Amino acid sequence: MNAEKIQIKLFAKPKTGTAIHPSAFVPVFHEWIRNTVLPELMIDVATYEHVARGPSVLFVGHGSDYVIDEHKGVPGLLYNQKRAIPGATERLSDAVRRALYAASLLQKDDSLNVTFRTDEILFRINDRLSAPNTAATFAALRSELETYFGSLLTGLTLTIDHVDADPRELFTVRIRVTEAEKAPSVDALLERAGGRPI
Amino acid sequence: MPTTTWKEILADRIPEALGREIDVFDKQIALRKENKIEEKLFAETRLRRGAYGQRYDNGQRSDGEKSQELKYPCGPLTKGPQTVWDAPGMMRIKIPFGAVSAQQMEVLSELAEEYSDQILHITTRQDIQLHFVHIEDTPDLMRRLGAVGITTREACGNSIRNVTACQYAGVCPDQPFDVTPYANAMAYFLLGHDDAQDFGRKFKIAFSGCKDNACGLTNFHDLGCIARERIVDGQKKIGFEFLVGGGLGAVPQNAQMFDDFMPPEELLPTAQAICRVFARLGEKQNRAKARIKFLIKKIGIEEFKRLVLEERAKLRPDERWTAFLDHLDVTNEKPLKAGAPLSAGSHGADYDAWAKHNVRAQLQKNYSTAIVRMPLGDFTADQGRIVADLMRKYTGDTCRLTADQNLVLRWVSNADLPDLHRDLAAAGLARGGADTIGDITACPGTDTCKLGISSSRALSAELTNQIEGPNPIVAPEARHLRIKASGCFNSCGQHHVADLGFLGVSRNVGGRRVPHFQLVVGGQWNNNAGSYGLAIGAVPSKKVPAIVKRVTDKYVAERLSEGETFQAYIERVGKKEIRKLVEEVQPIPPYEVDPSFYSDWGDPRVYTIGDMGVGECAGEIVPYVEMGLAAAEREVFEAQELLDGGDMAGAAKRAYSAMLQAARSLAREKNQNIGDTPAEVVSEFRKHFVDTQLFFDPFAGAKFAQYLFRVHEEGTDLKSKDSVHQTIEEAQLFVDASHQCYARLGAQLSQPVVA
Known about the structure:
The complex is a heterodimer of chains A (198) and B (755). Chain A is built from four helices and eight strands, in the order E-H-E-E-E-E-H-E-H-E-E-H. Chain A starts with 5 loop residues before the first strand and ends in a 5-residue tail after the last helix. With 198 residues, chain A is α+β, with helices and mostly antiparallel strands. By secondary structure, chain B is α+β, with helices and mostly antiparallel strands. The interface between A and B is large, with 46 and 53 residues.
């Protein structure tokens, strides 16, 4: 994919009860820095819980950010590729892989009341220059997205829709598994995506 | 998909001069990456373009147990002393008097998403800051701002910072006149002005529409201008109370009166003369004493005034001093709708609660302003777009950022207020209680600032939760008080001028570092920050909510009447009484019993001050002449690039421009009034450096100066590539000779004179 700065959002739900507490992620991310849990340079943790419907907790890295994100009021893990990897063909798969790996670790953490769904994934490009939020961009990328996600979510029926309610927003595509109950687990999907990123 | 660049797309939308400045900065980034610009010079260059350092940019970060190296891919490359190239930084965006249009808000929101962390942060000086920005993204970021009329130039560094003004200017019932066009004129007159390039520290200017209220905060600015009106010979005249030498920081100073009624036509030349005096006499070595308040304190206001007026008399006349007076309507705002009264009847409890503190009647009948509370000064890119929509829907495209880190929508018809509230609520932006005790101002503190000692933001968030949550710690009778918090003594959170101020400090307890906040009480926000508070004692961070409760409860219980202000109460009962409360909350359990006191709010790591870095507030001292010579050198480089690209005419012109730049940089050291025309530059250079033989090379004599004179006389219409190449070579030699001259004569050049 020629586009750089890919974002992947995996939607979250609480393991029990109704609430996910973003502040619980703060010590986890600090611990990840201390123990170099992710295979990339992570720098700091910033909290924005005081802001409604935003990035509640931001795990800041050099090449990527990981965000406990409540954009539009829907909680999830947003992976944000900031400094694109050089190989254009690997950008999308790398982004998906890193998002799934972080999600897998988070949902295994007993201090967090969170699991992640795979029946719906948001794909965004955080770069209005290369990817304005237009039908033309969608037309240019649709085939590539269908191929990649079709392979990742093999055997499932997918819908791939351009989210174009506000052209000022980032170019966004929603990938949905039609039969949600058949969607694989995060770990299964991570394995298909290539496992732990390098 | 498009494959072009922002530079190409926006080329015809960016003012030419600004576009050129950004291209130059882009080039400087490339040169620094090739190690062709010294790091100190690059640091001051980027600071003057608003690109600031951020915590951990020295490549080290404590993980709570030990300091870890952050191994950035850039290796040893730096963007300033102890500042790693790849480390994310902060971008400060100047917003003169806090005025933002809907289109600008949309672009700011885009930039927050694409280059930062989705968050826009309003500062206490009406700027917008974006954090976690990579230096290599900054030129495009600047271009996109430039295309909507925003510059980041001189947002940081030793320069004239954002010119601020009361957010109600133009709509305030208390004002004699609207200060906005004067603040606007001041901001753009001094932006990049030659006389404002040689400061030892930053210089802050504020305008206020009235003397009694808080909004302009002129009392703690280097230069403050308060709108005044007088009857002179039976005629109503307007002017400014003109104050100098105020400041916060570790040593707060009240501004002193320079002129109690300065006519508008003297505003800009007097400010220019002040800049010259500050540049000439201000401290350059001891950064802690380099603000103008120290100079004024040292020589006295009368002597300072004498020097400024003497300088004023020598200034070369500039039509800009008064030209703006013919266009005072340039900043006028037009309401979208005719003002209409609020409809009768109930608009709901939520609306009433919001309107009680967030809505204020304008000077203009049937219009109001509405404060949009932005907790800790933060809002998301999505919210920015929503605010832009609301500006277009209700206000006629006007809003102002405030020093309280909120946003004010102006020109809202009273009839629209309930609908506006409903729309704000839908975006999570209808928080009430503006300008009350839960609406806390905080600097970035340890979140992102290299100088932060304690977490002013996390403390403030916690206090707001405890004050505005289901079990408020502050009695309703004390809700009108204000809290401000700074992460260190530099006072960016303006803690000196709050009823309850907190500044981050650290203390040793049982051999361990514990985050604390010094309590400062009784500061005055009103009267343009009329007086500063008293330091009482340090409180452990985790005990700050407890001290807020105790102090406010004591005030409510002991005040003589509802009319006794907090300042009056503190003055009456004295520091000792408050000190007793502090002493009650100071003890904390040992680490082994309760380690929570040994971490700061919002950060589970064991507290350390080891992450503090070298601040960039003071910038780097790079004299004007050195900046000019560096610019000349860059132009020679660009000339070579143009020639390589086949643009012979452009290359020759750029080489000539490089020589002029170098000559002017030197000549200005002898004559501050020097103009920009090539003829004048060459003439002044000849007079001061060639006729005097100061420029003469020990071996080559006047040879290098002749290179400039020849191209000046013969022009740059060169016929062959070889002749252009020769001119570039000569330009490089001329610039080198200028450096040599400066090195030889540095001491003599440090005292410029006015012809």
